[in-house]
């Protein structure tokens, strides 16, 4: 049994989600924690299938609250468990993160006793939608300029977090995409040990992104600027 859990915030997932989670469980992940972030009754069949899986916990928001809120809901559940897990891995519900990449991220977190591990895409032009390329390039360059850290994939949802880091991560501001950027800001400002893992770039034909290239990129860049001038505790709730 691997000594980490996997957290998956899910908003209107495809029917492939239960099979994906089954693969993670079969690979020895300690537990998979899924948050139904107000997906609506038309997706009940997908989440019902999860209820039959061993070592899969399903949490639910009545209304869509945003990815940041969904992650915090899962993190609170994680902290209430006294299972001796070494950490948790966050993954997206749309199948962009291959099972083997999730496992490599988790194994690297545990084996290297790192504070955080990021699964980072290579961003080959032929593999990535233009909106993702533009958004990530903008935020990566601004992040490097402000904090001196080059993080190739600032928008990655595949992240390993050591158990002893979850408490302060929970206190960070943000309800949607900006929460994940705020996490990176505080990792840099607190000088946490951050490692990277190269992962596959996967986009399915049925992939649906709720990320608006310019609107959400502007929000993230504003968050970076704000995080730069504020001390770490001011970026917490």
Largest sheet: 7 strands, mixed
Quickly name the level 1 CATH class.
Answer: Alpha Beta
CATH architecture: Alpha-Beta Complex
Number of structural units classed as domains: 1
Radius of gyration: 17 Å
Label this structure with key terms.
Spore Coat Polysaccharide Biosynthesis Protein SpsA, Chain A, 7-stranded mixed β-sheet
Could you provide a short overview of the structure?
The chain is built from eight helices and seven strands, in the order βαβαβαβαβαβααβα. By secondary structure, it is of the alpha/beta class.
Give an account of the 3D structure.
The chain is globular. The mean pLDDT is 87. The chain has eight helices and seven strands. It is an alpha/beta fold. The longest helix is centred in the middle third of the chain and has 18 residues, at 130-147. α2 links the parallel β2 (31-37) and β3 (56-61). The chain has a seven-stranded mixed β-sheet with strand order 3-2-1-4-6-5-7, with helices on both faces. It has one domain: Spore Coat Polysaccharide Biosynthesis Protein SpsA, Chain A (Alpha-Beta Complex).
Helices and strands, with pairings:
Elements: E1 4-10, H1 17-26, E2 31-37, H2 44-50, E3 56-61, H3 67-80, E4 87-90, H4 99-111, E5 116-120, H5 130-147, E6 159-162, H6 166-170, H7 177-189, E7 194-198, H8 213-229
Helix pairs in contact: 5-8, 7-8
């Amino acid at each position: 049994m691997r000594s980490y859990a996997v957290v998956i915030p899910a908003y209107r997932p495809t029917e492939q989600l239960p099979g994906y989670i089954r693969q993670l469980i079969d690979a020895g992940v300690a537990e998979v924690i899924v948050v139904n972030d107000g997906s609506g009754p038309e997706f009940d069949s997908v989440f019902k299938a999860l209820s039959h899986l061993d070592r899969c916990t399903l949490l639910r928001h009545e209304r869509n609250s945003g990815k940041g809120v969904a992650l915090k809901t899962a993190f609170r559940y994680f902290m209430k468990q006294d299972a001796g897990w070494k950490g948790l891995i966050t993954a997206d519900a749309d199948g962009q993160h291959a099972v083997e990449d999730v496992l490599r991220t988790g194994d690297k977190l545990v084996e290297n006793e790192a504070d955080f591990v990021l699964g980072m895409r290579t961003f080959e032009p032929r593999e990535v939608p233009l909106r993702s390329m533009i958004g990530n390039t903008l935020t990566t360059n601004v992040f490097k300029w402000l904090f001196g850290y080059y993080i190739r994939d600032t928008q990655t949802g595949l992240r390993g977090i050591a158990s002893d880091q979850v408490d302060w991560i929970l206190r960070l501001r943000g309800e949607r995409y900006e929460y994940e950027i705020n996490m990176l800001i505080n990792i840099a400002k607190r000088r946490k040990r951050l490692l990277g893992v190269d992962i596959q770039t996967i986009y399915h034909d049925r992939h649906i992104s709720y990320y608006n290239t310019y609107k959400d990129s502007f929000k993230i860049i504003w968050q970076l600027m704000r995080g730069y001038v504020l001390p770490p505790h001011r970026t917490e709730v």
